[in-house]
């Protein structure tokens, strides 16, 4: 859903805070008011911010598990197929399907598959690579890397109303509150 103010399409409304504690407190209070589409921009990792924003971990771990299972299964299948079906060679009376010999490669490919799936899954789930974001156009946003903390309520939030959001953000005593055009 796109939210428009006059002829402008809004991405959201941001507030700039002076400290990490103020940001975490503001995120908790806004989540308590029912806002769900919150995002924070900080110069360093802030402990407790993910929980305050309502971020749930778990999707990347399923990507890693799926990649590991797929990588291990593919490696085992390729070894089995080449040793049993495609080119069976009886060497010293050992069985064609010598599964203990297949385990090392299977394990290594499971690790590789899990690592690659985790990396690419994290990129896909976080929407990266993203070369431009609407908040980059804010004049004050350059300070997000130099000691300021930003909290953005996106216009895709079901409770979003620019007047109500601005009032709720101003009640938290931020340094500035700004609309973010798309």
Give an overview in words.
The protein has 182 residues and is an alpha+beta fold. The protein has two domains: 3-56 and 131-181; 59-125, no CATH class. Helix content is 45%, strand content 16%. The protein is built from five helices and five strands, in the order ββαβαααβαβ. Strands 1, 2, 3, 4 and 5 form a five-stranded antiparallel β-sheet that branches. The two termini are 12 Å apart. The model has no long low-confidence stretch (mean pLDDT 90).
Strand content: 15-25%
How many DSSP H or I helices? 5
- Please indicate the count of domains: 2
Helix share, percent = 40-55%
Rg, alpha carbons: 25 Å
Write down the overall mean pLDDT: 90
Structural class: alpha+beta
Low-confidence stretches: none
Shape: elongated
Instruction: Determine the N-to-C terminus distance.
Output: 12 Å
Number of strands: 5
Summarize the main sheet: 5 strands, antiparallel
Along the chain, the helix and strand elements come as EEHEHHHEHE
């Amino acid at each position: 859903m796109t939210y428009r103010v006059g002829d402008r399409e809004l991405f959201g409304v941001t507030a700039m805070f002076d400290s990490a504690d103020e940001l975490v407190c503001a995120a908790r209070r806004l989540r308590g008011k029912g806002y769900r589409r919150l995002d924070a921009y900080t110069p360093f990792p802030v402990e407790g911010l993910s929980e305050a924003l309502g971020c749930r971990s778990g999707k990347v771990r399923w990507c890693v598990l799926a990649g590991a299972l797929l990588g291990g299964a593919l490696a085992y299948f390729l070894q089995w197929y080449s040793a049993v079906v495609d080119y069976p060679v009886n060497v010293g009376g050992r069985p064609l399907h010598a599964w203990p010999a297949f385990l090392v490669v299977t394990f290594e490919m499971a690790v590789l598959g899990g690592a690659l799936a985790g990396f690419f899954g994290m990129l896909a789930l976080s929407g990266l690579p993203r070369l431009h974001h609407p908040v980059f156009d804010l004049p004050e946003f350059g300070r997000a890397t130099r000691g300021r903390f930003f909290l953005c309520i996106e216009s895709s939030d079901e409770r979003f109303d620019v007047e109500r959001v601005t009032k709720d953000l101003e009640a938290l005593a931020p340094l500035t509150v700004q609309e973010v055009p798309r």
